[in-house]
């Protein structure tokens, strides 16, 4: 076993780094941030638990230990970990196929999902597989988040209308709500619409009013606006109690058990694991991507650094702790992290203090939540997720590249129409397939010398110097099996195109980053065929790593021409040789 | 509907091209070739039918109409279409999951498979999807053919031993034969070993003896050796009849129905199609690759051209005709096409004449096949397929590239261990995954000016000129989602590495063949981050197609530096600017 040096320990436990120099100023910043984030998180965590189909208290449980464990292992100073909208949606979608009727079993399965997701993240971190997340392209993520936002907002419509509806795809959800529309509960709808209107105003107009009417600073106004949803919670709860709205058919949160989160391993059976492991992997990757991009954005603002593989370990530990304390999958959330950062969090201790705040809430506030209408929580979710919906990615992708557009369109349509897992997986596969397809049909340019320079460019785009005895083709792709045969045909076709004086073909390899075994055989075939036609094959600007590989084969030995360091060398040398040959002929 | 011009008609029916100028010399050549190929094909087609688990006559049927249809639609002058070893193995493997007990049903299913495969090929030809075959890399094909050869040879061992054995994977086959070893039928083994020894001698020594002892020309000797297997057929058949070997437990072909192939649609049911369509696609692609590479090899020798998409149509028509005439999947075979070519076939008419020969055989010779021992046919197959086995692809791939080696090893191991379909599909996926993985971890070189030239190369491989104020990075890969984030980190790391005087970063884009939307956002982030550090970002040698795309975005507008046509321009311009700035400072 390798000795654990202090530096190595600090890498695994970043808390040992910042904890050592922790001071009063940092404590004040962290404490202020923790109070604000706690107030913000209480309604949010209840709402996201509802979205995942779980009892409200599970949202609180999932916000306590994960924050503590992230504070120990995480490398971001401001990231706040807990239930988030997209992961809650994915949790609901992952648990649906289990077909569990009892809420207790469903809750236990959510904890198992968190545990699995934590183990996946931990394994990825230990194996340093953070790069896997790079295969989620930006358009796929953007499309997925947008589609998830639409799905979530529409799934919450039932709580605003006070009806029972179901479904996991947009057509199912909308169809189900449409059918139930006649059963709308009017008091619920009124509460819901008031909450929605208030929350939209909190988001858009409140900070401005606080500044202009009450003379608050911009910072204070924006922070107060962030905790605004709490006023909606208090207002509608009081209204529901005072007006006996439950008697009028308004759904409220009801009894929320008071006490500490239940600690211990949830009931696990093997069949459940085989169903959940796929979704757990997807939740891990999506959660990781979301969390790391938030962490990186915030770190860049203070010139701090994030260690991606350590983040995997931290998120892994957070999810495992969530699974062991009656929670469900968690990750770093955007809104709460920004609030934490803006409110002055200096170190991960802010997260630990927030955890204490939420623990107190779980111990003492839950009786007060009895009359909280579910419509208010739904309104909180709708307002939060509508900011995720950004269909402009479609127009941006369309105008930039049709391949990116295809990937984002496939992701959005399939996420809405079939489900989150199929949507994101198809997006990744479509992106990869289009990339491979493009590399299988490479661009090949005939190039000539840019006058007065040693630089060679496309004869169709630039005024360049060429020679009738020399054909230079710049191959704009690595040579590998998917394009090797095509390259053979293409070179053959260009050589045939009425070039009687042709003596030399130069392949300019500045863009050839690899030559695999299939392509090597194609190069050998090209060399042979050109040789049969009395034309020599040369290479120029072959890169070091490619040249190393070619040296290990017979090809360089069989090559009829030479390998030149630069295209300019090749052009000048061959032109001179041809001129000398001509002079020799006319002198003879 | 587009008018069919004579040229267009000739493209679809190449027979209209060569048929018009058909003359007596061509007829003589074609006729000679047809006689030789017919003699060679009779035992071969019976043997391959046996390999596919079909009655012997199905092999003959599959050799008649397909030859005629290929003669009408094909573009190769010498390709001979019919049952081949690998496709016969794949047919057996495709039909096994149907679990058919009756031989009649099994034979009908083989015809359905041919029909499906024909339709797939036809569709690929019409949609011009011949390029799909390029995704089968050379190492994957080589590995697959080698593994198939081993599987086929071991599956035929049971006929040589005269035992009943089963299985579709190498461990199953060998295990089954090992169990049955005590039941070896000695007369069968003796016949089998004699046939094997004779056939090996025919292949290796016969031509030499015919030349030296009998004074034959090299051409005549090698052609006679090609029809050598017929002597084994005749010899062992006579021996089986004279010695009453069936009475001693030697399996013989038995009654082969005499007459024309049955014409008409085989019995098709939908459930069968869903099982067979996947294997049909794989058989189509493998058959097409095998056929086209044979056709191209032969065409190159006579400077003729093959039209790949028309070949798909011709093979499609051949397979459909095979399915409609009681046959099974066919493709262009290597050995028979070479014999056809060597024996002087001038046009596809040779194939049509061969078809007539085989038709006559089906009408008249079948009673003579009663006493033909199955051991002889198995020996024919074993000798034929052992020439396909070439394990040297493993060592060649290992010494050239570990990625190619991984693909070929996966293909061989899984083809032998699980089956042909899994083997070849995994080979393709492994090849693609390794390619994508490599492009996600690109090589990035810091470059400097090669003295006395305008050429820039890796500072670690060449003696080059650099400037402390300028860092030039050559990125050896297209920029896309899988490597965009990595590139951000990498550039950041290089910039950090103790460069206090750094003012300019130049990204040399000569190897960047694409910049997708994810990479564009990474470039924007890099530009922003460098700008925060007081460093300008420049690009050089951006290719036309990439530049076109960047012009459609905001990036060029936000770029802190410039885009230079050549790296030399960039280096000279920025160095001069920095020198002027320095002179200005010291003057002030």
From TrEMBL, chains A, B:
CDD domains tied to this protein: STAS_SulP_like_sulfate_transporter
GO biological process: transmembrane transport
Taxonomic superkingdom: Bacteria
Topology of this chain in the membrane: Multi-pass membrane protein
Keywords recorded for this protein, A-Z: Membrane, Transmembrane, Transmembrane helix
Subcellular location: Membrane
Domain STAS: 460-581
Listed GO CC annotations: membrane
Transmembrane intervals: 31-52, 106-124, 131-153, 184-202, 223-243, 263-291, 312-330, 350-370, 377-399, 405-437
Protein name in UniProt: Sulfate permease
Species of origin: Antarcticimicrobium luteum
